[in-house]
Amino acid sequence: MPVTNKRRPTIHDVARASGVSRGTVSRALNGDPYVSTAALAAVRRAVAETGYVVNRAARSLVTQRTGTVVMVLSEPQEKLFEDPNFSVLLRVATRRLAQRDVALVMMVAGDDGDRERVVRYLRGGHADGVLLLSAHSGDPLLAELEGLSIPAVACGAVLGREGVIPYAAADDREGARQMAQYLVDLGRKKIATITGPLDTPGGLNRLEGFCDVLGRKAVKKLIAHGDYSRHSGEAAMRELLDRVPDLDAVFVGSDLMAAGALAVLRERGRRVPEDVAVGGFDDSAIAGSTHPKLTTVRQPLEQVATETVRLLLELIDGADAVESLVLPTELVTRESA
């Protein structure tokens, strides 16, 4: 018995079902703000009833848009799955873009080959804009993006391009000041820090905030560097304990690195917080699952992602410029300090 393909609903079907003109349906589906509330509701109801699906290819011919935004993570692929911050940013950005019927494509640019693929994709006109995640200063991808003249916004400032690439970010420096001052107020005398990469705003600005409070006490031997991974937190903590066995506090530049630091302190027989107080940064899900639970600095990641998407959509919609913004952090005290 032959199978008959069911005819796909068209915009004409939606117009008939909604009782408005085809032009009104088209304007409603394309987000025209001048469509009345009643007409918009009728179109949405008709779309649901008919099962109409917007033809993105046809729409792009009219609007000159792809309906797609690319999120570029400038880290090795494994970090996407290890660091819980990235999943929060990805989830929120996907949801916010979906509200505008914009799809999100995730691309990793952790090495030269990855970066070339990203550039080829963007040069091919497959996206309306770019969300930058964990961008490093000096990344050659940044210069390529400027040459493509595609709207781009960063989650966190891009060092050296703060006036070129707009961004939404947490106040990393002030958050680090909050944690460092808290450790000082606890009476700790030898306070160390484990930084993130210093070519990222989180790495550099959190170190600067730490030094703002510690001043001359922020000596080189009390500073170790990581890359936001748990493994790097372990390695940096071992390095600090070998250099300064009697340190009594450590501010770690991310919760994931702090989890690694806590494991090494247990391994070396140091009690937390009795012997060594530990503070993190992020207030990710990790902070509530460590032993002891982690005192940390909460950065408003969901709000950062929301604002980053808002800025990018404004640029895509034709804004000449948008204003970057920095959001406040909050100290969250638990058991580790």
TrEMBL record:
It comes from Catellatospora coxensis. Transmembrane segments: none annotated. Residues 9-63 form the HTH lacI-type domain. Keywords: DNA-binding, Transcription, Transcription regulation. One of its GO terms (molecular function) is DNA-binding transcription factor activity. This is LacI family transcriptional regulator. Pfam families: LacI, Peripla_BP_3. SUPFAM superfamilies: lambda repressor-like DNA-binding domains, Periplasmic binding protein-like I. The keyword Disulfide bond does not apply. InterPro entries: HTH_LacI, LacI/GalR-like_sensor, Lambda_DNA-bd_dom_sf, Peripla_BP_I. It comes from the Bacteria.
